[in-house]
Write a structure and sequence with these properties.
The chain is an alpha/beta fold. It binds fructose -6-phosphate (F6R).
Length: 599
């Protein structure tokens, strides 16, 4: 995820910017750049890869520059190279940008008509031209840009004809102003300013901030705003975690905003956008991945098979470490989809390379834009989850499931298996997804965790899509709390696994699938009658009558295309709370690595 830093004061600006960019490194990035100015000119210096590469270029640089902006880029539009790296400039405007401008193609066309041309493939360069195109005051130009842009942005802007002044504004992307003594800062993250000052102000949507070394002036449509100066009480480490106790908790909390981000990216004019891959021309699709990404792939297959398949497409899902050693007979209507958060998982990458070598079409659903998988796949659907630092994936899995659901929906719509009316309803649910999710983030999961943390074995059961969500729930629990946990299709329980049930063995039954809810409930009762302590995750319409349940979590019932996204949230929280109670290292579980780059 991109990071921003801006400075105006008396210090050598390159030192401040490089230091700031380094404290943003934890967010992940693929390239970095700065723009600095002194009385004479503005200089832009960029480099691909680590910030040390940028530092190398700045080694012998003139130290007289005392104002500038810097950026770490996490590519979303256009490949990873120096041209696409920020800062971007157009005539009088130089800027850095975080976020995504949804209507940038439209704006670009309008600007081309009036004579602008573009060097990069980015949406950010379009903003520079947009601001530059306005003939009027700088404030009006920025308000004009706010009105024209659709999407999210945190922007810090310098004008060639105005020395010693930075401008900033934001929408749905974080940005704060750090208040120093004869110096001021602007940054996407408090961690940047902490070495210099603890005082900061928040920028609200619709505001325009003018920053000089002695003043920070915030304007909105009614004029000058009286802003409250806050004091950051966090340590540097806390700041990186956004005040959350662990990265995992922070990342789970980001899932709500991720829905909005993905909605803005993939829905255009109340329709599925061209950014959602159309797989309708293929008749054989293999989805390949490892771990949680493999479980996300299973959700995708289930949705396609159950709801949108007219018999003309066959979906096969496999774990990458198996798939790479199997024989494959691809036809000209075959597609291989690889799913990977890191984009570096060795087995998944090997499958991608094998498919590429055999000439078959490949599509990567991938989070890290600079990763090998993102570079080598023929088509890419970016996960837009931002850097995931906790080893156990949460928002990554969430994004993978949502994107596969969108591919399924678009396929169904194109094939006529989803009507216009159904499509409209699905898009409406997507738009409201955050409001369905929010109550699940407000439940106190510590009560359940207290009952579970001392157990040796925990079993999950479910049918259909509930079973598939159980796979991920069980993995989350075992990998961070080290409790042995397994998941069974509820109907299979009595064919063997029920022998494992002792008095008080926790069995967590997931029941949100309408068609088979009675059967699932009977299976749960079977386990209970063998002594199991019964925990339920059930949708509101599952009637539990007078059953004695240890704990029940209710989830809203929504379309099956989104239901798995709701169902997984409580299990991520339960795993987190259990791991904490056991004193486990939540963000770095033993024996695990974030990116599995060996076979
Ligand atoms: C589980 C987890 C792993 C990954 C798997 C694939 O929480 O994080 O199971 O899902 O190693 O990783 P990526 O998606 O990076 O290919």
């Amino acid at each position: 995820m991109c990071g921003i830093v801006g400075y105006v004061g008396n210090k050598n600006v390159t030192d401040v910017l490089v230091h700031g960019l380094k404290s943003l490194e934890y967010r992940g990035y693929d390239s970095a750049g700065i723009a600095i100015r002194n009385d004479e000119d503005i200089k832009i210096i960029k480099s691909v890869g680590k910030i040390t590469n940028l530092e190398e270029k700045l080694k012998d640089f003139d130290k007289s520059y005392t104002m500038g902006i810097g950026h770490t880029r996490w590519a979303t539009h256009g490949e990873v190279n120096e041209v696409n790296c920020h800062p971007h400039f157009t005539n009088n405007v130089v800027l850095v940008h975080n976020g995504i401008i949804e209507n940038y193609r439209e704006l670009k066309k309008e600007l081309e008509v009036i004579g602008y041309s573009f060097l990069t493939n980015t949406d950010s360069e379009v903003i520079a031209a947009l601001i530059d195109s306005y003939k009027g005051s700088k404030y009006d130009a920025l308000v004009y840009a706010q009105m024209k842009m659709r999407g999210s942005y945190a922007l810090v802007i310098m004008f060639d004809d105005e020395k010693n002044t930075l401008y900033a504004m934001r929408k749905d992307s974080p940005l704060i102003v750090g208040i120093g003594k004869n110096e001021n800062f602007v940054a996407s993250d408090i961690s940047v300013i902490l070495p210099y000052t603890k005082k900061y102000i928040d920028i609200e949507e619709g505001e325009v901030v003018k920053i000089t070394k002695n003043d920070v002036l915030v304007y909105d449509e009614d004029g000058l705003v009286d802003k409250k100066v806050k004091t950051a009480l966090w340590s540097l480490e806390d700041a990186k975690k956004g005040g959350f106790e662990h990265f995992m908790l922070k990342e789970m909390n980001e899932e709500k905003d991720l829905c909005t981000k993905l909605f803005n990216k993939f829905i255009e004019d109340e329709n599925y956008s061209d950014d959602i891959p159309d797989i309708s021309k293929y008749n054989n699709v293999d989805i390949v991945a490892c771990g949680s990404a493999f479980y996300a792939a299973n959700v995708g297959k289930y949705l396609i098979d159950s709801y949108v398949c007219d018999g003309s497409i066959h979906i096969n899902v496999d774990v990458a470490s198996e798939y790479r050693y199997k024989k494959h007979f691809y036809g000209d209507k075959s597609l291989v989809i690889v799913v990977s958060q890191s984009g570096e998982t060795a087995d998944t990458l090997a499958c991608l390379r094998m498919a590429n070598n055999l000439g078959v079409d490949t599509l990567a659903i991938v989070n890290v834009p600079s990763s090998t998988i993102a570079k080598e796949a023929k088509m890419v659907m970016p996960m837009l989850a931002g850097p995931e630092i906790a080893v156990a994936t949460t928002k990554g899995y969430f994004s993978q499931v949502l994107e596969l659901s969108l591919i399924a929906q678009k396929l169904g719509y194109i094939k006529g298996m989803i009507s216009d009316e159904e499509k409209n309803l699905l898009i409406e649910t997507f738009e409201n997804l955050k409001s369905y999710l929010t109550p699940l983030f407000e439940i106190d999961y510590s009560k359940i965790a207290n009952k579970l943390w001392s157990k040796e074995h925990i079993y999950f059961i479910g049918r259909g899509i509930d079973y598939i969500v159980g796979l991920e729930a069980s993995l989350k629990l075992k990998e961070i709390s080290y409790i042995h946990s397994d998941v069974y299709q509820a109907g299979e329980l009595k064919h063997g696994p029920i022998a494992l049930i002792d008095k008080s063995t926790p069995v967590i039954s997931i029941i949100t699938n309408d068609e088979i809810k009675e059967k699932s409930l009977s299976n749960a009762i079977e386990a209970q009658s063998r002594g199991a302590s019964l925990y339920l995750l059930a949708s509101e319409n599952v009637d539990i009558d007078n059953l004695k349940i240890d704990e029940i979590i209710r989830v809203p019932r929504i379309s099956e295309f989104y239901q798995p996204l709701l169902n997984i949230i409580p299990f991520q929280f339960i795993a987190y709370e259990v791991a904490k109670l056991k004193g486990c290292d939540v963000d770095k579980p033993k024996n695990l690595a974030k990116s599995v780059t060996v076979e």
